[in-house]
From TrEMBL, chain A:
The keyword S-adenosyl-L-methionine does not apply. GO terms for biological process: DNA damage checkpoint signaling; DNA repair; mitotic DNA replication checkpoint signaling. Residues 142-288 form the AAA+ ATPase domain. This is AAA+ ATPase domain-containing protein. Keywords: ATP-binding, Cell cycle, DNA damage, Nucleotide-binding, Nucleus. GO terms for molecular function: ATP binding; chromatin binding; DNA clamp loader activity. CDD domains: HLD_clamp_RFC. It holds the Pfam family Rad17. Residues 612-621 have a biased composition (Acidic residues). It comes from the Eukaryota.
Automatic annotation (TrEMBL), chain B:
InterPro entries: AAA+_ATPase, DNA_pol3_clamp-load_cplx_C, DNA_Rep/Repair_Clamp_Loader, P-loop_NTPase. Transmembrane segments: none annotated. The lineage of its organism: Eukaryota, Viridiplantae, Streptophyta, Embryophyta, Tracheophyta. May be involved in DNA replication and thus regulate cell proliferation. Belongs to the activator 1 small subunits family. One of its GO terms (cellular component) is nucleus. Heterotetramer of subunits RFC2, RFC3, RFC4 and RFC5 that can form a complex with RFC1. GO terms for biological process: DNA repair; DNA strand elongation involved in DNA replication. The keyword Nucleus applies. This is AAA+ ATPase domain-containing protein. Keywords: DNA replication, Nucleus.
């Protein structure tokens, strides 16, 4: 037991370290110039102090408002240590070693509005918002909360920090406290410390902010300065109740705070939207807006400004990176500048970046000839850096359905290394990655993919091409058959099921791509959600209805087959007019069409949720 | 009460359409031991009637005192327990149910029920332990796994109960089960037999039947006695006295399928295919079984089709019907058939008329 306790202490220490590191990374200090002088010559000591401090904070577990300022100072100290080295960066890079000091992401944190890669208009918008609130007298504006949304790495926090330093305001941050792990909790409780949930902490924090505002830090260096509150990370919530509490708490914050507050919400890509947290953040966003918060959405960083930033860093680091390579990195990052900078650093670590790049770029020569950068990305080179791109399901479906192909002459180039197929079966090369790869990027599951394709593909066929329609339909039928093969089998077949799923998705997608040999002239099509899902749902409903009523209706002493009931009794009873004999009344409402109509309406209203439950059920079985 | 129920023969002696089989069954039962039975034949041929009559023969009038029960079966399926709800119809001596209503879980149902039945056997008058009869409908709709588990339980508990299975097509019942049962094929009654039955009902109801009217209904009924009686009653409601030229209305879904067929014949394009899909959905929502839709659609299409295409079209219909059975979502396959038909028909039109 004693042993274990030791271990616990260690692990919690580790976590604290990690945390302080990570907060270092995400933290950019306002007013750096004025504070550099206060730099700590011994960063290690500062760190130690910080650890002990945060541990004491943990042990106290009561969030003191002073603490915000305190923490903030604490950060400062660590940072100043850091900043010293950053200040020397010219000299260090003079040695020619980029590995000698920290991450470029921190090193080249934007320090002025000009350095921000975020779109000027957005920055301006945020800046004006803060200016208005900082300068003017209180109570002029209804609310003091700004919600900034955007995907990861678009410079949300950087913008706030830069603007704050521009306006001469202090940023106070709320960072979600480190989660308490179970062992740690055991350790704590044996030491008599009670556990407070992170949500509680956040609630208390918000409460205090509302009531007292920010109390200037004890070591007040700046006698009177304006403050900006930054909430970077909302506490995790699990379940409806906790989420409700968070919402309520935020609502109060929006309504009553008098400090300009920025809440940063990270958008998750469409592709991850199956995730619970993503849905929550979506809901929170709407909720905050309805509560009266002002919202600014940051778009992914554009290629051009990304390239500008990257080349600036290269210049400062004195690395000779080709424009092409920078372009590649910028594209691969998908608008995530943090990632792009790290990629760049990684790329520069290589002994000879130029040669390795040229090596890997030689392979897809025919593609390069067409100067199609996106396909160049597909080559080996892209795998060395950059994020794996994710696609939304709809994006992927769009690719499949529109079926963009190369033109004739490109075909001639390809032909040499392909085996010959009959004219009837040959198609022009696709203008996209291999369908399987696209599927993978979109996290596409076979069943919904097949359903969506089935629902939408006919719109994309040429008016005359009924043969194509058949080809597509037959491939979809194949895919459906594959999907059904192991249906209802239990877990031991999971392996096989995976293979089948992949195969079925592949058959469906490639079938659609192959079959659609005369695509209709491209125009805008909406991609519909499969009507099939509704149909299945309501037919299931009707079926259970019928099964239930089968006995009361026919007064016989035997059960009728479902098919007989639906095909013979039901229409027949309709003819007979309702209610010729006593037991039949129960059937009448079933007969009326508006019954099913009702079901339809309900179904479409309930939308996603309804359908998801069926999906789950089917998977369960 | 519908005429179908009202004039259903109650005893084996009263059976009109399959007298021969009825007599044989009677002999079988009177000789005490009864094997498992599998009745199969097209719909409306009198399987259920025979089964009911047979039960009455075995157990006397008590077999007719049935009660409907909505039972929830708790099934222990390895890691979890399942609750399966199923409606059963039971008397003291027999239980009737449609195991395929349980969907994917049908395999548990069969086992559980037979086990339970085996636990509480009735004791007959001589103090000897008798057996219960389990009537299973729509056996052909059972999944393969369910049929396997049925086979095992059939052997294990054969001392305690007898099974009477009922289905449309014996080809969808596994060999193993078929070989353990006495197979009784019930043919569709001939049109003459149907006419006879209709005339009998007409007489009992005191109706005037013009000559040829019963024949007309019989012809329309597609040799399904139930269908014939049902439409006979409909005609009675619609128009009485009957005339020999009276229109015998077909079922609404059949008309709808005919409409779909004419849509398909009129235009062959992806757009039309999409419209057809919408109509097929309509049918599926109303629980018309997809096999029946496909069959009817083929029938309607063939009516208007040139002879030289019939063979090919039939081939594809059979192909996609099979696919449908293997697959999961019927619409994919029905639609593929429609697309194929359109494709064939269009090229035929172009070849003939240029």
């Amino acid at each position: 037991m004693g042993n274990r306790n030791n271990l616990v202490v260690l692990s919690s220490d580790d976590e604290e370290n990690e945390r302080s590191l990570s907060s270092n990374r995400s933290y950019s200090k306002p007013k750096s110039r004025s504070l550099v002088t206060r730099s700590n010559p011994n960063p290690r000591r500062a760190k130690k102090a910080r650890i002990s401090n945060s541990r004491s904070r943990l042990s106290k577990e009561s969030s003191n408002v002073n603490e915000i300022g305190f923490l903030y100072d604490d950060f400062d100290e660590v940072f100043n240590g850091f900043k010293v080295s950053a200040g020397k960066r010219e000299s260090i890079s003079g040695f020619g070693g980029s590995n000698a000091n920290g991450l470029w992401v921190d090193k080249y944190k934007p320090r002025s509005l000009e350095e921000l890669a975020v779109h000027k208009k957005k920055v301006e918008e945020v800046k004006v918002w803060f200016e208005e609130r900082l300068r003017s007298s209180k109570d002029e504006f209804g609310h003091y909360v700004l919600v900034i949304t955007g995907q990861a790495g678009v410079g949300k926090s950087a913008t706030i920090h830069v603007i704050a330093s521009h306006l001469g305001a202090r940023v106070c941050e709320w960072n979600t406290p480190t989660p308490v792990i179970w062992q740690e909790h055991l350790h704590n409780s044996s030491a008599g410390i009670t556990y407070t949930s992170k949500l509680d902490e956040f609630e208390i924090f918000v409460e205090r902010i509302r009531k007292y505002g920010l109390i200037p830090s004890s070591s007040a260096k700046e006698p009177k300065s304006s403050n900006i509150l930054l909430i970077d990370d909302l506490p995790m919530t699990n379940g409806k109740v906790a989420f409700g509490r968070l919402k309520k708490c935020l609502h109060l914050l929006v309504r009553s705070t008098r400090i300009p507050t920025a809440i940063l919400l990270t958008d998750y890509g469409e592709a991850d939207s199956a995730d619970q947290t993503a849905r929550c953040s979506e809901e929170l966003k709407l909720y905050l807006e309805s509560a009266g918060a002002c919202k600014v959405a940051f778009n992914p960083i554009t290629n051009n400004s990304m390239k500008k930033t990257l080349s600036r860093i290269c210049r400062l680091e004195r690395f000779n990176v080709t424009a092409e390579q920078i372009d590649l990195i910028a594209r691969a990052s998908g608008g995530d500048i943090r990632n792009a900078i790290t990629s760049l650093q990684f790329c520069c670590l290589k002994p000879d970046p130029l040669r390795s790049l040229s090596l890997c770029e030689t392979t897809p020569t025919y593609l390069r000839e067409k100067s199609d950068e996106i396909s160049a990305l597909d080559g080996e080179s892209s795998l060395k850096f950059g994020r794996d791109e994710t696609l939304s399901l709809f994006h992927a479906l769009g690719k499949f359905l529109h079926n963009k192909r190369e033109t004739e002459n490109a075909m001639a180039l390809m032909d040499q290394d392909e085996f010959l197929v009959r004219d009837k079966f040959s198609r022009l090369p696709l203008k996209m990655d291999a369908p399987e790869k696209v599927l993978c990027q979109a996290h596409g599951q076979a069943r919904p993919i097949a359903d969506f394709l089935h629902e939408n593909v006919l719109d994309f066929l040429c008016e005359e091409a009924i043969d194509d329609a058949w080809t597509v339909a037959s491939y979809l039928s194949d895919a459906d058959m594959l999907l059904a093969t192991f249906r209802g089998m239990l877990t031991r077949y999971n392996e096989a099921e995976n293979v089948l799923q992949t195969a079925a998705a592949s058959v469906a997608v490639r079938g659609v791509l192959f079959g659609n040999s005369h695509p209709s002239p491209s125009r805008w099509h909406a991609i519909r959600r499969p009507k099939l899902w509704q149909v299945e749902q309501s037919s299931l409903c009707n079926k259970t209805e019928i099964v239930k009523r089968r006995f009361t209706g026919y007064s016989g002493q035997t059960l009728s087959d479902l098919s007989v009931v639906t095909t013979e009794y039901t229409p027949m009873l309709k003819w007979l007019g309702y209610g010729t004999s006593g037991g039949l009344e129960t059937h009448q409402d079933l007969m009326q069409d508006n019954k099913t109509e009702d079901n339809f309406d309900k179904m479409s209203l309930d939308g996603q949720q309804e359908i998801e439950t069926t999906d789950d059920e089917i998977e369960d079985w | 009460m519908l005429w179908v129920d009202k004039y259903r023969p109650k005893t084996l002696d009263n059976i009109t359409a399959h007298q021969h089989i009825a007599q044989n069954l009677k002999k079988l039962v009177t000789e005490q031991d009864c094997p498992h039975l599998l009745f199969y034949g097209p719909p409306g041929s009198g399987k259920k009637t025979l089964i009911m009559a047979l039960l009455r023969q075995m157990f006397g009038p008590t077999a007719e005192k049935v009660k409907v029960e909505n039972k929830t079966w708790k099934v222990d399926a390895g890691s979890r327990t399942l609750d399966i709800e199923l409606t059963t119809l039971s008397s003291t001596n027999h239980v009737e149910l449609n195991p395929s209503d349980a969907g994917f879980q049908d395999r548990y149902i069969v086992q559980e029920i037979i086990k339970e039945m085996a636990k509480n056997r009735p004791i007959d008058t001589k103090g000897k332990k008798g057996f219960k009869v389990l009537v299973l409908n729509e056996v052909d709709k059972l999944s393969r796994e369910a049929q396997h588990s049925l086979r095992r339980t059939m052997e294990k508990y054969s001392a305690y109960c007898r099974l009477i299975l009922c289905c449309n097509s014996s080809s969808k019942v596994t060999e193993a089960i078929r070989s353990r049962c006495l197979n009784v094929r019930i043919n569709a009654p001939t049109e003459e037999e149907i006419v006879k039955v209709l005339e009998l009902i007409g007489k009992k109801e005191g109706l005037q039947l013009p000559s040829g009217f019963a024949a007309l209904i019989a012809e329309k009924s597609n040799r399904s006695l139930r269908r014939a009686i049902l439409s006979f009653e409909t005609c009675r409601v619609q128009q009485y006295p009957f005339t020999s030229k009276q229109v015998i209305s077909s079922m609404d879904w059949e008309e709808y399928v005919a409409e779909i067929a004419s849509d398909i014949m009129k235009e062959q394009s992806p757009k039309r295919l999409f419209q057809v899909r919408g109509k097929l959905y309509e049918l599926l929502v109303n629980c018309i079984p997809p096999e029946i839709i496909l069959k009817r659609l083929l029938y309607e299409l063939l009516k208007k089709l040139d002879a030289e295409l019939k063979h090919e079209v039939c081939h594809w219909a059979a192909y996609y019907e099979h696919r449908m059975r293997l697959g999961q979502k019927a619409i994919f396959h029905i639609e593929a058939f429609v697309a194929k038909f359109m494709s064939i028909y269009k090229s035929f039109l172009i070849a003939t008329f240029g």
